[in-house]
Amino acid sequence: MAEQIDERALQQDELVPPGTSSRGTGQTILITGATAGLGAEFARQLAGQGHHLVITSRNPLQLVAKAQGLEAQYGISVETLTTDLSTAEGVDVVAARLRQREQPITMLVNNAGSGLATEFHESESEDELAMLKLLVEAPMLLSHAAIQAFLARGGGRIINVSSVAGFIPEGSYGAAKAWSISFSRWANTRYKPDGVTITALCPGPVRTEFHTRAGIDTSKKPKWAWMDAEDVVREGLTAAAEGRSVCIPSRRYRSLMAAARFSPDAVVERFSRIEPKAR
């Protein structure tokens, strides 16, 4: 749990310039859930650095519109994959693209995700399972395909979009994000010597459409708790470039997670009982 926090992530106070690569290198990066929220911001920043993209979403109209906009604005190429990553068929489509040797993928951003507005005892088991498939099963299978391909090509990067919810008790969503953090820490240690790095990006609440689309009431969250998508993605790309296993964006959340690490369980668990209820 809290012991999983990367020490360097807790100690980093200043941002270093992003170093993923220079403009015009023509690397190809795959981003899941790229039409909104953090996924759209990843696409914008990476396209701005001159990278070509492969983007996925369940909505074909939004996907095409996003691709056309990025190509027109940044002069890069964007390939689209209309897939539902909560299904085996959808995961297979993206995994096949990761293994493709033509226009090889050099970075995978596992960003697609969802949340539930209802409390665990009030939710449908099918909805809980679908969320876990999207947050755990899909990133695991796509990471498996990517790591195999990256090892064969001599290197690559994975960013798993996680959450600070993975460090504290916060329902099945937090449990899924805890898996993402633990897996990224292990995988980065195991494969970094071979040129493959895996980074868990763990922001607090971000100003995106995520909560509204899930029907989650955020009216009681204090203003200081919110983060900007641009800052979160920029710090995540920096951490990935440095090969760090965990990135907690912003000094305030690094401090909070450091405090949680040394707090009694009863104090940490209190946070799981004060979340706003669903609309």
Task: Describe the protein.
This protein has 279 residues and is of the alpha/beta class. Strand 2 (52-57), helix 3 (60-74) and strand 3 (78-82) form a beta-alpha-beta unit. The two termini are 29 Å apart. 47% of the residues lie in helices and 13% in strands. The protein contains 10 helices and 7 strands. A 7-stranded parallel sheet has the order 3-2-1-4-5-6-7, with helices on both faces. Residues 1-24 and 273-279 have low confidence and may be disordered. The chain is globular, with a radius of gyration of 18 Å. Helix 2 (37-48) packs parallel to helix 3 and helix 2 (37-48) packs across helix 8.
Short description:
Helices cover 47% and strands 13% of the residues.
Set out the fold topology.
Blueprint: H1 7-11, E1 28-31, H2 37-48, E2 52-57, H3 60-74, E3 78-82, H4 88-99, E4 105-110, H5 125-153, E5 156-161, H6 171-191, E6 196-201, H7 210-214, H8 229-242, E7 246-247, H9 251-261, H10 265-270
Helix pairs in contact: 2-3, 2-8, 4-5, 5-6
Give the tags.
279 residues; alpha/beta; 10 helices; 47% helix; globular; disordered C terminus
Overall helicity: 40-55%
Shape: globular
Q: How much is the average pLDDT?
A: 82
Our estimate of the beta-strand percent is 5-15%
Main beta-sheet annotation:
7 strands, parallel
Order of the strands making up the biggest sheet: 3-2-1-4-5-6-7
User: What does the radius of gyration come to?
Assistant: 18 Å
Order of helices and strands: HEHEHEHEHEHEHHEHH
Find the structural class using helix and strand composition: alpha/beta
Count of alpha and pi helical runs: 10
The end-to-end distance, rounded to whole angstroms, is 29 Å
Give the total of beta strands: 7
Low-confidence runs of at least 5 consecutive residues = 1-24, 273-279
